[in-house]
Amino acid sequence: MANPLMQENVWLQKQRFEEAEAYFYAVQAGTAQPGAIQGGQGGASPQVQNRLDELEKENKDLKKVTNDLKALVQKLESRVVALEGGKGKGGAPASKAAANDDDDDFDLFGDDDEEDQKMKEERKAKMIADYTAKKSKKPALIAKSSVVLDIKPWDDETDMKEMERLVRSIQKDGLVWGAAKLQEVAYGLKKLTIICIVEDEKIGVEDLREEIEQFEDLVQSVDIAAFNKI
């Protein structure tokens, strides 16, 4: 005949498991030494003891894994801080070597900027020097004037071609003769109108007029009909 208790849903070992659980946490808290469970039953069953050993081993393994992960995270944070120039999210200070490397990199870039600025200044100075030299070699602007002279003869029998030849015979540095033509004055009398270009610093118009009047056998007077700066 079967045992009636086998038909009941009763946990007969509950007290032992509760004692084993209490003993496990006591060992973890440091208030008990590993060994036999103290209690009214006088000792733990081999199954319970094995389970406690397994739990203790698993707990040690978990602690080791946790510590390894924590160390790895700290190393990663240190590398991130070093790469970001000491601005890591976790606020962990960068190593002294990483800080020195960052300073060296910054100094290198600073040197490049200084060299670029120096090269720009040298190019600018060279351009200014070239422009100044080119400007100094450029010939100065020469002031010139266009003068129209009216040269009158004594009478209508004067040889006007000879008069023009004598006038053009006056050759000076800074004097260039231009076109000439005869214009009637009155009663068949004509005058010689001639253009000349003079450099103001070299030729005086009044001096030129007086020099033409020295051909007194043919020339009665010389008038300045027009005077324009070029």
From TrEMBL:
Example GO molecular function: translation elongation factor activity
Record's signal peptide: none
InterPro entries to which the protein is assigned, alphabetical: eEF-1beta-like_sf, EF1B_bsu/dsu, EF1B_bsu/dsu_GNE, Transl_elong_EF1B/ribsomal_bS6, Transl_elong_EF1B_B/D_CS
Keyword Aminoacyl-tRNA synthetase in annotation: no
Stored CDD domains: EF1B
Ranges where the record places region Disordered: 84-119
Domain Translation elongation factor EF1B beta/delta subunit guanine nucleotide exchange: 144-230
Family of the protein in this entry: Belongs to the EF-1-beta/EF-1-delta family.
UniProt-recorded name of the protein: Translation elongation factor EF1B beta/delta subunit guanine nucleotide exchange domain-containing protein
Species annotation: Littorina saxatilis
